[in-house]
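Case 226 in the screening queue. Each case pairs one protein sequence with one candidate compound; here the compound is glycinamide ribonucleotide. For every case the pipeline is the same: read the inputs, emit a complex structure as tokens, and attach any notable structural observations.

Predict complex for case 226.
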Amino acid sequence: MSAAQKCRLAVLISGRGSNLQALLDQAASGELPVTIAAVISNRPGVQGLERARQAGVPALELDHKNYPDRPAFEAALIELIDRQQPNLVILAGFMRVLTADFTEHYRGRLLNIHPSLLPKFRGLHTHERAIAAGETEHGATIHFVTAELDGGPVIVQARVPVLPDDNPDTLAARVLTQEHRLYPQAIRWFAEGRLRLEGEQVRFDGQPLMQPLRLEDFANPTEARR
Ligand code: GAR
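Case 226 output:
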């Protein structure tokens, strides 16, 4: 990818697509130096597909229910993604477990957002579980995807407080606001060539990342780009 060529994204979704919307908006405004080549949903008719259409981005459906098993679905998904020739594949609320064949195919160019401060609360119902555990801090994580569910090398996290009167919905809303800042930042770093995966090691500006980056340290995106 030369500087003149924008990083091409394929964005995988399963539903609402609010994280997708943040990417569409920042790509349209030029804040995010990417081309969103296609949005692919494993669930037909979801809101995120409509968001893509509204933005003039190809909105593709690949219903996992039409395939006999996971490997057959993933083989079709890989074919569809690769036809878009993406530099980076983005999981944005894509709610299917992926096999090692899939994650290895995209190793180092597959990112996920997870609504917790990993390694805490892998899996589902993260907000409910954070409240039940008495956490005072919660958040979201961007990580490179490997075969281990929600276990790949962590890149950057955004933190929010858990307030005494929070319920899972109020906490989810607070985290989501941060998610919409967090994913564009990580993708910008990748597009600018500042972020890569070497073996199991994340490298940021060429240096091994010994702990997750914190979004609050990059409050001003212009500053972070220097
Ligand atoms: C987001 O909160 C994302 O972090 C979460 O699903 C939501 C999708 O919302 N992802 C996962 O739980 C992945 N394990 P959106 O469709 O509005 O972007």
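Case 226 observations:
- Residues 15 and 46 are 5 Å apart (CA to CA).
- The first strand starts at residue 7 and ends at 13.
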